[in-house]
Amino acid sequence: MLSKNKIKFIQSLERKKARKEYGCFLAEGNKLVEDTIVAFSCKLLVATSEWLQAHPQVQADEVVEASPDEICRASLLSSPQDVIAVYEIPQYTVQPTSLSQQLVLALDTVQDPGNLGTIVRIADWYGIEHILCSPLCADLYNPKVVQATMGALARVQIHYVELVDFLPQIKAPIYGTFLDGENIYTQSLTPSGIIVMGNEGNGISPEIRSLVTHTLFLPSYPEGRATSESLNVAVATAVVCSEFRRPK
């Protein structure tokens, strides 16, 4: 049985203040929990008897068998599934020098939870293991971000850092997308480096632009045609990452 106090605790994790207080975040849904439970320390697992019987190997500090109705009352989703997991927020550390031979994403104030979650998923697809986020980016452990990652946060480490101080220490090419940049399809892109993606409305800030060593532009097709003003930041990230991973 799922108590009222546990329901209240689970729902409180929608708020950043509660996540910080408890040091925990929430994951819901069969696939998401299956992907993440092997990567994080599970403090509380709430699931139907059928789900628990189908997953006898799962480990958690506390397991609560609950009815579908109880899960519905605790869930933050519009269409709850069979399982809710509460994980301990991991504490990652990274040294700038360890990233110099990798392809890394740096997000400059990407504030939409759906965009951040999708970018984490894109990074996972393209084998990018680290994302650097400025402090004003959306919170990775916001339930909307967690859901949008589709489990990719189990394989990609996100670090909140002051980009203006951190990026120069990596000692790698720094790429950024701008309307006045060079056509990405005509450039020789390095296998390692930093890809900076900017805010949804304002793009890359002047402070971070001053650090960029290679400016890139994603042209519309055909070039010069009247078209949308810009691409969504997650879509643009996918295009840029795809071009970096294109076999040379």
Automatic annotation (TrEMBL):
Name this protein carries in UniProt: RNA methyltransferase
PANTHER family: RRNA METHYLTRANSFERASE 3, RRNA METHYLTRANSFERASE 3, MITOCHONDRIAL
Protein's UniProt keywords contain Amino-acid biosynthesis: no
Pfam families, per database record: MRM3-like_sub_bind, SpoU_methylase
GO function term, MF aspect, one: RNA methyltransferase activity
Gene3D superfamilies found in the cross-reference section: 3.30.1330.30, 3.40.1280.10
Superkingdom assignment: Bacteria
Family in the record: Belongs to the class IV-like SAM-binding methyltransferase superfamily. RNA methyltransferase TrmH family.
Cross-referenced SUPFAM superfamilies: alpha/beta knot (SSF75217), L30e-like (SSF55315)
Domain called MRM3-like substrate binding: residue spans: 5-85
UniProt-listed GO biological process terms: methylation; RNA processing
Keywords assigned by UniProt, alphabetized: Methyltransferase, Transferase
Residues annotated as domain tRNA/rRNA methyltransferase SpoU type: 103-241
Taxonomic source organism: Candidatus Caccoplasma intestinavium
